[in-house]
Write a structure and sequence with these properties.
Strand content: 15-25%
Number of helices: 11
Bound molecules: adenosine-5'-diphosphate, 6-O-phosphono-beta-D-fructofuranose
Structural class: alpha/beta
Radius of gyration: 21 Å
Order of helices and strands: EHEHEHEHEHEHEHEHEHEEHH
Helix content: 40-55%
Length: 326
């Protein structure tokens, strides 16, 4: 692989607040270091169809505070096929793109890993997802903003829960990861979190009831991680109606509002640091790694490790939630 002169940048999968801050950082850092930058629209789809524009520093002005992604995003089935990735590689060759920066979640980084393997293209990943489910980084870009959105919503739901003395199941996103539910519960003072990681260990509803719901309080909020594994908030509301009919139960599904909004300072800062680090990594000769931040230090995480989907839940957080919800 020769010297890198031009990089392509794309956002893929679910959008996340802070993706724009990352696009800005990658673009500015690349230009600062004498590289050409090409913005690829609509994720891998744009790499297949050739929706590409050269970026100057002004193209990323005034976006650090914006949610979503100015590059748009998409889920592209064609890229999951070897034929689709070959077309993407041909587009890169035609456009003179020597290396790719991919901002997205585990699916997007899986795609980058395959492209890198099949065509010897240097790819660097930035963890952009509200789910926080990438291994090797303390947090992902967008996670902190989503958490803040969740606590703002739960604070409001609590007013009704308290006034009506109700039990609320609030469903939050996270795909099959419980980080948003668990930390959202701690930060909003919720009484419990039901997360997929513990589904096979205990009956989390029974645990919650057994641990003293209604001993000291007349209302309760339980954050439930969306997931086929847990069954989601509706599943637990149905169970309560059948198994504990004495409780007045309601469900709120927060949905896509968790993905929107202006990124928090935390997300803007990690996105900026990771963006700069991605260009540094390429220039150092790093290939096919995700940029992470662990204990405030920049780290390079091989794609295979980052996407293995086994980022563990910290048991200490579970203990904190349990202890504080009495
Ligand atoms: P996220 O990146 O947020 O996890 P997805 O799982 O939907 O979101 O993945 C985003 C895109 O990444 C997909 O639409 C597809 O283009 C690409 N991708 C996902 N999984 C793979 C795979 N196994 N092989 C190739 N590309 C993939
Ligand atoms: O990966 C981010 C995420 O918001 C998940 O938490 C959620 O399961 C999924 O994307 C929703 O995807 P869509 O926007 O396609 O409904």
């Amino acid at each position: 692989m020769g010297t890198i002169k031009c990089i392509g940048i794309l956002t893929s999968g679910g959008d996340a607040p802070g993706m724009n801050a990352a696009i800005r950082a990658v673009t500015r850092s690349a230009i600062f270091n004498g590289l050409k930058v090409k913005g690829i629209y609509r994720g891998y789809k744009g790499l297949i169809t050739g929706e590409i524009q050269e970026f100057q520093t002004q193209n990323v002005s005034n976006i650090i505070q914006q949610g979503g992604t100015i590059l748009k995003t998409a889920r592209c089935q064609e890229f999951k096929t070897p034929e689709g990735r070959k077309i993407a590689y041909e587009t890169m060759q035609r456009e003179g793109i020597d290396a790719l920066i991919v901002i997205g979640g585990d699916g997007s980084l899986t795609g980058a890993r395959l492209l890198a393997q099949e065509f010897d293209v240097p790819c660097i990943g930035l963890p952009g997802t509200i789910d926080n489910d990438l291994y090797g980084t303390d947090t992902t870009i967008g996670y902190d903003t989503a958490l803040n959105t969740i606590i703002e919503a739960v604070d409001k739901i609590r007013d009704t829960a308290t006034s009506h003395e109700r039990l609320f199941f609030v469903e939050v996103m996270g795909r099959d990861a419980g980080f948003l539910a668990l930390n959202g519960a701690i930060a909003s003072g919720a009484e419990a979190a039901i997360i997929p990681e513990f589904n096979t260990e205990v009956d989390q509803l029974e645990e919650f009831i057994k641990n003293g719901f209604r001993k000291s309080k007349n209302s309760s909020i339980v954050l439930v991680a969306e997931s086929e594994i847990t069954g989601g908030a509706m599943h637990y509301a149905e169970r309560v109606k059948n198994e504990y009919p004495q409780y007045d139960v309601r469900v709120t599904i927060l949905g896509h509002l968790q993905r929107g909004g202006s990124p928090t300072a935390h997300d803007r800062i990690i996105a900026s640091r990771m963006g700069v680090a991605s260009i540094e990594a390429l220039m150092e000769g790093q290939r096919n790694v995700m940029i992470g931040i662990e204990n405030d230090q920049m780290v390079y995480v091989p794609f295979a490790k980052a996407i293995k989907n086994d980022k563990p839940i910290d048991r200490e957080l579970v203990a904190v939630l349990r202890e504080l919800s009495i």
